Amino acid sequence: MSTFDLLLQQTINGLSLGAMYALLALGFTLVYGILELINFSHFNVFMVGSFVALWTLQALGISGQSVILTGLPLVGVLLAAFAVTMVFSGLLGVAIERISLRPLRNVKGPAAMITTIGVSYILFNIILLTVGADSKNFPNPLPTARFQIGGAILELREILIWVVSLVLMLGLYLFVQKSRLGKAMRATAQDPEAARMMGVEVDRVIITAFFLGSALAGAGGLIFGLYYNFTSFIIGFTAGLRAFTAAVLGGIGNVPGAMIGGVLIGLIETMGGQFIATAWTDVIIFSILVLVLVFKPTGLFGTLTPTKS
Amino acid sequence: MTQITRRSAGRLIAGAAAITAIGARVSSVHAADKEVTVGINLPFTGADAESATRIKNGAVLAIDDANAKGEVKGYKINIMLLDDGTATAGQYDPAQAATNARKMASDRSVVAAVGPQMSGSGKAMAPILSQADLAIITPSSTNPDITDPKFAAQYKPGGKAIYFRTVTTDAYQGPNMANYFAETLKAKALFVLDDSGAYGVGIADAFQAQAQKKGIKIIGRDRLDPKAADYSTVMTKIKSLNPDSLYYGGVMQAGVKVVKQSYDILPNIIKAGGDGVYAPELLSGAGFPAAEGWYATNASPHMTEDASVENWMKRYNDKFGMSPDDYAITSYDAALVIIDAIKKVAASGKPVTREAVRDAIQNTSLNTLQGQVKFDENGDLVSKVVSIFQVKRDTRYPADDMVHNFRYIGVAPQT
Question: What is the value of ipTM here, to two decimals?
Answer without folding.
Answer: 0.81
